[in-house]
Amino acid sequence: DEFKSERPLRDVVYYRPISILNEKESYYIGSINEQESLTTWSRDKCIPLVREITFSNAEELTDEGLPFLILFHKADDHESVVLFEREVAKQL
User: Fold this and answer.
1) I need a labelling partner for 23 at 20 to 30 A (CA). Which of 13, 15, 33, 49 fits?
2) So where are the chain's domains?
3) Rounded distance, CA 31 to CA 91, Å?
4) pLDDT at 77
């Protein structure tokens, strides 16, 4: 197999962030078999800091017990959303 030398020696989970956050790619360094550790790492990386709140997901979001910072914007105003997401990521 000509690409064998380029493959990792063990299973690897990579995280590739969205470009606006200017974060580097990272990978999970624990054991794939440690479910609690992998789940915690995945949630930290994959559940976005900024999410849309709707009537259908409001209860789920409040159950997390995290504070809310809500941006009200016009539906076609995408620039404000990008700036908001970037600022939230920077402050946290």
Assistant:
1) 33
2) 1-47, 50-92
3) 31
4) 92
Residue at 62: amino acid letter: T
The single-letter DSSP state of residue 53 is -
DSSP 44: H
pLDDT, tens digit, for every residue of 17-34?
Answer: 766 566 788 888 888 888
Amino acid letter at 53? I
**Measured distance CA(72)–CA(4) in Å, rounded:** 50
Residue that is written with structure tokens 């999970």 in the block: 28
Tokens of 72: 């009200």
String of DSSP letters for 12-65? --EE---GGGTPPPEE--S-TT-HHHHHHHHHHHHS-SS----TTTHHHHHHTT
**Whole-number pLDDT of residue 20:** 57
